[in-house]
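$ run holo --ligand "manganese (II) ion" --emit C-alpha cells
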Amino acid sequence: TTTHRIAVIPGDGIGKEVVPEGLRALAAAAKTGGFGLDLVEFDFASADYYLEHGKMLPDDWFERLRDFDALFFGAVGWPDAVPDHVSLWGSLLQFRRRFDQYVSLRPVRLLPGVASPLAGRVPGDVDFLVVRENTEGEYSSIGGKIFEGTDRETVVQETVMTRTGVDRILKYAFDLARARPRQRLTSATKSNGISISMPYWDERVERVAEGYPDVATDKYHIDILAANFVLHPDWFDVVVASNLFGDILSDLGPACTGTIGVAPSANINPERTFPSLFEPVHGSAPDIAGKGIANPVGQIWCASMMLEHLGEPAAGAEVLRAIEDVLGRADAPRTPDLGGNATTADLGIAIADAIR
Ligand code: NAD
Ligand code: IPM
Ligand code: MN
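-- output --
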C-alpha cells in the first residue's frame, strides 16, 4: 500500500483546534481508502516557538520540510505576542515562496444546510473557484522607508509582476476553467486606477486567452467585482486574481456562503518540485481561540484537497461528500458560526464518522 508522508503544522490559536479534526477525517479516509499516512508534527511557525527561539522557524526548516509529500497547515498569527508581519513573513509567506507554491486555489461553494447571508441563494447558486497568484504582486519585499521621523517620512512598497509569474497563474486558471462544464474565466483587474501593473495583467490575460478559445473570458475592476460577488455570485466559475485582490476575494466569497470557517485553500506547486501546502482560508481567530467552538470544516475540506493532490481522488471526494452529507442533515452538530452550539470536535467527529 502507498503511504503518504505529511508534515503537520498546527500553528496558533484555532489552528491547533481544527487541525486535529482534519487529521481525524484523514485517518478515516485512509482506513476506508486503503492507503497509509505517515504524519510528522512540527511546533514551529507559531508564536510559542517564536517566544522560545526568537524566530518563527528553525534555520533548517527548508531541508526538514522539502521531502514531505504535502504540508497540512492550520493558521499562524498571535498579534498580542508577535507582530503579524513578523510572524507571517517569518513562516507562511516563506513556505509559499521558497516552495514556489504560486497557485492559491480557493473553492467557494454554498454548502447544503448552510444559510447564505445573500437573500434567496441556495446551493448551486454560489460555486466557483478563486485562483490567487501566491508569490508576487502586491506582496513584495521591495520598498522602504526614508526620512523616518520627519515630516518628509515616505514609505514605498512596490508591486512586482513578472511575465513568468503572471502567465503561469493565468495558464493554471485557464486550464481549470477549460476542464469545468461552464468553461468561464473572470479576471480581477484595476487597470483604470493602477495604471502600470494592472494594464500589464490585462494584456497578459488577453494574450494567454488566445490559447483558450473554448473558454469564455471576462474581466471586472476589483471594486465592482466585489459588488458582483454579493449581487450575482452565480455569474462566476473560475476567478483569477493578483495576490492581494485574490486574498480579499477569498474572504468575501466564503462570507457569501455563510461563514469563512468552511473555506479551504491549497497552496500548490504544480510542478511538484516542492511540497504543496493545505490550509484553511481563515486565520488563528484569537477572539474564539481556546473555546473549542471553531468550525473545523475549512480544515477538513483542506484534507479533501490534499488527498486529491496526493493521488487519492476517490478519498478526497469522499471527505467532501461526508462534509456535505453531515451539514445537510437537520440534526447536524453546528458550530456557532453556523448558528448552533456544537463544539469543534462534535462536528469533526460527525464528519469523520460519515466517511465510508
Ligand atoms: P481570522 O480569519 O483569524 O478571523 C476573522 C473572524 O472570523 C473572527 O471573528 C473569527 O472568530 C472568525 N473565524 C475565523 N475562522 C473561524 C472558524 N474556523 N470558525 C468560526 N469562526 C471563525 O482573521 P483575523 O482576525 O484577521 O486574523 C487573526 C490572526 O490570524 C492574525 O494574526 C492574522 O494575521 C492571522 N491570519 C492567518 C492566516 C493564515 O495562517 N493563513 C490567515 C488569515 C489571518
Ligand atoms: C491568507 C492570509 C494571509 C495572506 C496573511 C495571514 C498573510 O490572509 O492566507 O489569506 O494575506 O495571504
Ligand atoms: Mn486572507
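-- notes --
The two ends are 19 Å apart (CA to CA).
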